Amino acid sequence: MDKKAAGMVAYLTIVGWFIAYFVGDKEEAKFHLNQALVVHLALIVISILGRVPIIGWFTWILWVVVVLAGVLGFIYAVQDQDKEIPLLGIVKILK
């Protein structure tokens, strides 16, 4: 799997991220793999926070922001651009 395909698959689901990580060109697609992982982890944290009373009422706003950032990251991967997504792009998990 080349850099562009690995970047696109990584944003789709967490399972897609694992497929892109283990099957794709890991070194070339590291930028999009990192950003997609941050998006997926943020969605997991927001889902957990959504179960907390009162705080959970406002998590839909965060969910919309993170999903839109993920869509923007997917668009950047389709265009083969290494641009950071807003707000979450500064987080670096993969070295």
SSE series: HHHH
Rg over alpha carbons: 14 Å
Count of alpha/pi helices? 4
Number of domains: 1
Envelope shape: elongated
Total number of β-strand segments? 0
The end-to-end distance, rounded to whole angstroms, is 20 Å
The low-confidence parts are none
Largest sheet features: none
Structure class: mainly alpha
Helicity level? 55-70%
Mean pLDDT: 92
The portion of residues forming beta strands comes to under 5%
Topology record:
Layout: H1 3-12, H2 14-23, H3 30-49, H4 59-78
Helix pairs in contact: 1-2, 1-3, 1-4, 2-3, 3-4
Q: Gist?
A:
This protein has 4 helices and no strands.
How would you portray this structure in words?
This protein has 95 residues and is an all-alpha fold. The protein has one domain. It contains four helices and no strands. The chain has helices spanning 3-12, 14-23, 30-49, 59-78.
Keywords for this entry:
95 residues; mainly alpha; 4 helices; elongated
